[in-house]
Amino acid sequence: MNQVQSRILLVFNRYQNIDQTPFFSLALTAAFLVVGGIGAIYHEMWRDEIQAWLLARDSTGPIDLLRHMKYEGHPPLWHLLLMPLTWITHAPEGMQAVHLLIAATTVFLFARYSPFTPLQKILFSFGYFVLYEYGIVCRNYGIGLLLICIFCILFRNRYQRIIPISISLFLTSHTSVHALIIVICIAIGLGFEYIFNRKQLVDSEDTIERQIWVGFGIMGVGILTAVLQLNPPPDTGFAVGWKTNFDLNHLKNVIKITTRAYFPIPATQMHFWGSRWIEQVPAIQNWNLQISVAIFIWAIVSLLRKPTALLIYISATLGLLAFFYTKYFGGIRHHGFLFIAFLMAVWISCDCDQIVFFKPLNSLCRWWEKSLPPILTLILMVHTFGGIRAVRLDQEHVFSHGRQTAQYIIERSMNFMPIIGDMDYAVSTVVGYLEYPKQIYYMRGNRPGSFVRWDNKRVNGVSDEQVIQKAKDLQKDQVLIILNRGLPEPLIKQNGIEKITHFTGSTISDEGFHLYLLETSP
User: Fold this and answer.
1) Angle 62-69/47-58 helices, nearest 10 degrees?
2) Which of 76, 199, 325, 462 is 20 to 30 A from residue 284's alpha carbon, by CA?
3) Which of 396, 426, 442 is the last residue of a domain?
4) What's the pTM?
C-alpha cells in the first residue's frame, strides 16, 4: 500500500512540476501553432481585420497613419507594427502569420511563467479568446494580451523592474481603449501600493525611489498620449457622443456582459460569431443578471486578502463596464477584457502582500480562496470548449466572402476596370484582397479610397439608382459594380447591366457580394 501511495505521490509531483520544464512550454506552443495555423488558413478575414491592413498599407508614413487613426477609436500600435510588413508584401495573409506568432508568444510566456496549474495553462491556450478571438481573428487585441502577460511576469519584482514594467504598460495603453482602461487601473493600484509601502521600498540612496517616479512618469505619458490619440476629430462620424442618462434596462444588459465574458460559447449556427449559446440555456437566461453579480462578488472575496490585486480587479471591471455603458456596448472581443482583467488579477495576486484579518474572517477568506483553483479550471474548460467550437464553425462556414470575391475578380482581370463599391465598410474587405487597384470609388463617402474613413461626410441611404448613375458618370466603357446586396431585376434590365455572379451566405451576414458590369460603349 505504501508503494502504491508513493507512486501516486511521485506521479502527482511530476504533474505539478511538468510545466517548469522548457519542453512543456515549447510543446504547448507548438500544438497551439498547429491548431491556430489550421484555423487561420480556413479563416476568411472580414472588414475590421482588413481595415487595419489597409490603413497600414495605404498611409504614406507613420504621421499619415496617426492622422487616419483619429477616426478609428483605437490607439495605433498594432497598425504601426503592420506598416513595415506592408512594405514587404501586399498579401494580407502576412498579417495573419504575424498575429498568430504574437498569440503563440503569449501562450509560451503564460505556460512558462504563470503560477497556474499545467491543466489550466493548457485550457487557457486553447480557450475562446486566446485561440480564436485574439489568435485567429487578426485585431489589435492580441498584442494587448501579450503585453499584459509581460506585465504579469515582471510584476513579481515590480519595483526593481519598474522601468521595464512601465514601458510594457506604455505600449499596452496604445493597443486598444479596453487595454488602456486596464493600464489606468494598474497605475492606480501600483500608486496606492507605493504610497502605503514607501518606507519599505526606498533604500538609503533613494535609487529605487527615483526609478519608481520615472516609471510612473512613463506610465503617465503612455496614458496621456493614448487618450490624446483617441480623442476624435470634430468631423468624426462613428460612435459619436456619450450615454450619460440613467437607463436601468441598459445597465442590466451591461452587467450581463460579465456572464458572456466568463462563458464564451458560440451557438452552433452559420452566424456563430458573437452569438451567445450560454444565454439560450433557460436557467442562465432567467438568472443572467444574478450570475454576473455573483461572479463579481466571488472574485472580490477570492482576492480580498490581496489589496493591490483586488483594487486593480475592481477598478478595471467597473471601468470597462462603465465604458460599455456610456460609450460603446461592443461585442464579445471587447467583453473578453473583463475576463482578462480577472485572470491578470489572480496571476499578480500570487506576488502581492497579504493582509491578515481577524481570525474568523481570515479563516473564511482562506477557505474561500481554496475554491478559486477548481472553479477557475471549470471556467477555463468552458473557454476551451468555446474556442474549439469557434474554430470548427469557422472551418464549416465562410466567415466573409471578401477573399472569394477578390479571387474571382483577379482571375478574370476585372480588377483593371473602374470599380464602384457599396456598402463601403463591407466592400473594403474585397479591396484588401485585391493587390490592384489600391483604391475603388466608395459611394458612401463619395470619394475614392481603400480603408473606410469614418467621418461625417459618409452618407446613409445611398440608393441603387445613385450607384448606377455614378457608374454612368464615370464615362468608361465598362464599370464593375460591387454591392453587398442584390439589384432588383427591373433596374438591371432598364440600365442594361450584366449580372456577373454573387457570393452569399457567410458568418458576417452583410459580407456576401454581388458583381455587376455596366457597359456604356455601343
Assistant:
1) 140
2) 325
3) 396
4) 0.93
